[in-house]
């Protein structure tokens, strides 16, 4: 047994400054320490957020925490002693939502999330064709396209399709959004689309009404109803673009994956969406002896978006989960890899496109219909500005709703727009799309829970979050509470009623805290489609439904939810950037000197809450808190040493400096695996 009660008693009585007088070590141990770390600010992440100044490890485990005086008997001839000169030491981070195979750059055309106008984009992509010597007829496949910054149209290139067509008429082109949900393609790619019968019909105005009517909400169109180049979610499957995932020849990139995680201080991850075949790359890394992190995989039947008509049915669920059990059993034999979670993609994403005409609506599943904002684009700056909203009850909209087919020709659209100031199809709205039908989500969650799989649900809109909560609640009612740490990832908008339900159920919430960011350009793409704003100045008003319920981390925590942290890398950036996430969880601000913005300050977390999210809560989310997540005697020696005391920074009102923190060293299983 471990002598933990002594430490808990001391922690309850003494301040952090005095805690070093209370020592804890493995009861009766005669093992000499391999390493002793002293003169440090050791943030234990235990239940009291205790701080000690000395830690000793041996055989990959922590054998002592406390004062430097108390460790003397564990120091032997071969003990290496490390004086940290006051530096901060804390548990290795748990990133509970990441796509690890994509966090390293590939040798290919890549935007690296840099914002570009359509004019600049054309020149850049032409150079890619030359640089990588892409033969005619071969795909130009471009990674990390920033879909929400840049993309300003011009007279020459009014749409994405026009710009990509100018790049090449001999190469199919696909831009992969840095969120993993948005895509852009050219006419060559659109022309490749096959219908269910295997006939090549292309995506066009006509086929969106016939062959591809199920995808209508996922294809951006121009004023004439023709595809304007933008695709979301499973619509990309129609053009048969190649897979972006690399997993073959793992010796070429898996060591880089391990290195990037280690230099970020990440020692445990949940890969949030893995087709089982991709696990072989991680197995290669473990077999090579170079694994520097623990992996829990949230597996899924498909990785590439299947076409809507090819998705699983409820009747397929038992066989699918039975297949998952085979994979789980196979990887249970490994040391660092577990395949005991499963991904459910409930809905899509919530960003609209103000630069399109008509503006492209978001497609995340919402409880209420989206608004139809009217934008103008500044000719000089290329930026969009909100000028008003479509009145759905106007006489003009009544006419469109009564006979929408009358308002589809270019001449009619042009005349209608000139008279009313908006596109006639803006009279027709929707509340988004479920990528997975709620009844399937409920049945799938029930079987996964029954078979002992942790559920990891992607839900962005409030309706998708509600469907996820319904499914988890139903599984527990039918199967009984097996204490599996079922999770909802992202949860960008959560209705207040569901916030309480999430708390009552103790659901794990995997937030990417860097997105709690008051970026006005991004906010315009979302809030203006949800709330009716009188002007752009009304953004960030906590009386608005969106701003009041966006990433409600603090409210959910108070209600009983377990808050965790996931970078979702390579979304936005390939860098998992834990310290950016920590800073944003606390500040929820946007670095705008003249007019700083905050995204609902009441939902900010304190430093201890966000550190719990990255440490002990993350360990609980991955069902490994018995051996990881805190600096306590008997636990695995996964820890990091960092360049700044981020607790002190937060408590001194300097949280905006946390993102400058560097990992100085990362230790995994008691081994030094990274040093700066």
Could you report the average pLDDT, rounded to the nearest whole number?
A: 92
Overall SS class: alpha/beta
Just give the CATH class of the domain at 107-239. Answer: Alpha Beta
CATH architecture of the domain at 107-239: Roll
Number of extended strands: 28
Counted by DSSP, the helix tally is 19
Helix proportion: 25-40%
Largest beta-sheet details = 8 strands, parallel
What is the CATH T-level topology of the domain at 107-239? Answer: Diaminopimelate Epimerase, Chain A, domain 1
C-alpha Rg (nearest Å): 26 Å
Spatial sequence of strands, sheet with the most strands: 9-15-16-17-20-21-22-23
Low-confidence stretches: 1-21
Distance N terminus to C terminus? Answer: 36 Å
Q: Please state roughly what percent of the residues sit in beta strands, choosing from under 5%, 5-15%, 15-25%, 25-35%, 35-45% or over 45%.
A: 15-25%
Report on this model:
The protein is an alpha/beta fold and 676 residues long. 27% of the residues lie in helices and 20% in strands. Among the domains are: 4-91 and 633-675, Urease, subunit C, domain 1, CATH 2.30.40.10; 107-239, Diaminopimelate Epimerase, Chain A, domain 1, CATH 3.10.310.70; 373-427, no CATH class. A hairpin with a 5-residue loop joins strand 13 and strand 14. The radius of gyration is 26 Å and the shape is globular.
Write the layout of secondary structure elements.
Blueprint: H1 4-13, E1 24-25, E2 35-38, E3 41-43, E4 51-52, E5 54-58, E6 61-66, E7 80-83, E8 88-91, E9 93-98, H2 118-131, E10 140-145, H3 160-167, E11 173-177, E12 182-185, H4 187-190, E13 219-221, E14 227-232, H5 254-263, E15 266-274, H6 279-287, E16 294-299, H7 317-331, E17 337-345, E18 373-377, E19 384-389, H8 395-402, H9 410-420, H10 438-450, E20 454-459, H11 462-479, E21 487-490, H12 496-505, E22 508-511, H13 520-530, H14 545-549, H15 553-559, E23 562-565, H16 578-587, E24 589-590, E25 597-598, H17 607-614, H18 616-621, E26 639-642, H19 646-651, E27 663-668, E28 671-675
Parallel strand pairs: 2-7, 3-8, 9-15, 10-11, 15-16, 16-17, 17-20, 20-21, 21-22, 22-23
Antiparallel strand pairs: 1-6, 2-5, 3-4, 5-6, 8-26, 11-12, 12-14, 13-14, 18-19, 24-25, 26-27, 27-28
């Amino acid at each position: 047994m471990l002598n933990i009660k002594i430490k808990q008693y001391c922690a309850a009585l003494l301040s952090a400054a005095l805690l070093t007088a209370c020592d804890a070590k493995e009861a009766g141990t005669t093992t000499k320490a391999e390493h002793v770390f002293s003169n440090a600010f050791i943030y234990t992440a235990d239940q009291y957020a205790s701080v000690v100044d000395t830690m000793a490890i041996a055989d990959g485990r922590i054998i002592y925490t406390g004062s430097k005086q108390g460790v003397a008997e564990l120091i032997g001839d071969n003990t290496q002693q490390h004086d940290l000169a006051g530096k901060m030491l804390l548990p290795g981070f748990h990133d509970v939502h990441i796509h690890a195979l994509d966090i390293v750059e590939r040798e290919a055309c890549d935007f690296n999330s840099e914002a570009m106008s359509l004019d600049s984009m054309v020149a850049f992509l032409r150079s890619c064709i030359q640089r990588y010597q892409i033969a005619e007829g071969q795909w130009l496949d471009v990674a990390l396209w920033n879909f929400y910054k840049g993309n300003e149209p011009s007279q020459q290139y009014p749409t994405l399709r026009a710009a990509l067509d100018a790049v090449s008429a001999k190469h199919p082109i696909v831009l992969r959004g840095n969120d993993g949900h948005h895509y852009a393609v050219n006419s060559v790619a659109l022309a490749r689309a096959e219908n269910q019968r295997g006939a090549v019909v292309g995506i066009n105005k006509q086929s969106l009404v016939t062959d591809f009517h199920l995808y209508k909400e996922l294809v951006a169109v121009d004023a004439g109803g023709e595809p304007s180049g933008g695709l979301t979610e499973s619509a990309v499957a129609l053009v048969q673009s190649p897979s972006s995932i690399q997993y073959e020849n793992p010796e070429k990139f898996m060591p880089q994956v391990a290195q990037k995680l280690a230099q970020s201080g990440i020692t445990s991850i949940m890969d949030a969406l893995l087709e089982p075949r991709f696990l072989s790359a991680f197995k290669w890394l473990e077999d090579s002896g170079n694994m520097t992190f623990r992996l829990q995989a949230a597996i899924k039947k498909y990785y590439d978006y299947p076409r809507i008509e090819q998705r699983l049915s409820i009747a397929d669920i038992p066989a699918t989960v039975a297949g998952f059990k085979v994979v789980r059993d196979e990887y249970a034999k490994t040391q660092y890899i577990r395949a005991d979670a499963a991904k459910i993609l409930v809905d899509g994403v919530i960003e609209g496109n103000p630069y399109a005409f008509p503006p492209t609506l978001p497609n995340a599943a919402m409880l209420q219909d989206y608004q139809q904002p009217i934008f103008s684009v500044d000719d000089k700056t290329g930026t969009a500005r909100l000028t008003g909203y479509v009145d759905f009850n106007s006489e003009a909209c009544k006419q469109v709703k009564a006979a929408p087919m009358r308002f589809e020709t270019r001449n009619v659209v042009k005349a209608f727009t000139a008279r009313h100031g908006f596109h006639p199809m803006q009279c027709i709205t929707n509340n988004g799309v479920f990528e997975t039908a709620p009844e399937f989500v409920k049945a799938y969650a029930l079987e996964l829970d029954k078979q002992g799989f942790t559920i990891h649900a992607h839900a962005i809109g409030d309706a998708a979050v509600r469907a996820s909560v319904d499914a988890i609640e139903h599984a527990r009612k039918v199967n009984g509470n097996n204490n599996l740490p079922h999770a909802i990832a992202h949860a960008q908008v959560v209705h207040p009623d569901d916030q309480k339900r999430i708390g009552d159920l103790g659901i794990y919430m995997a937030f990417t805290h860097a997105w709690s960011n008051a970026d006005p350009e991004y906010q315009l793409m979302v809030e203006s489609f949800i709330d009716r704003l009188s002007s752009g100045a009304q953004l960030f008003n906590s009386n608005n439904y969106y701003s009041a319920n966006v990433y409600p981390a603090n409210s959910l925590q108070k209600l009983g939810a377990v808050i965790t942290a996931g970078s979702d890398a390579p979304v936005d950036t390939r860098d998992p950037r834990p310290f950016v996430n920590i800073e944003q969880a606390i500040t929820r601000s946007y670095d705008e000197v003249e007019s700083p913005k905050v995204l609902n300050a009441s939902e900010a977390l304190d430093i201890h809450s966000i550190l719990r999210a990255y440490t002990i809560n993350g360990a609980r989310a991955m069902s490994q808190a018995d051996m990881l997540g805190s600096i306590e005697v008997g636990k695995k020696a996964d820890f990091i040493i960092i360049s700044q005391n981020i607790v002190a920074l937060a408590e001194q009102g300097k949280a905006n400096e946390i993102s400058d923190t560097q990992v100085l060293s990362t230790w995994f299983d008691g081994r030094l695996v990274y040093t700066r």
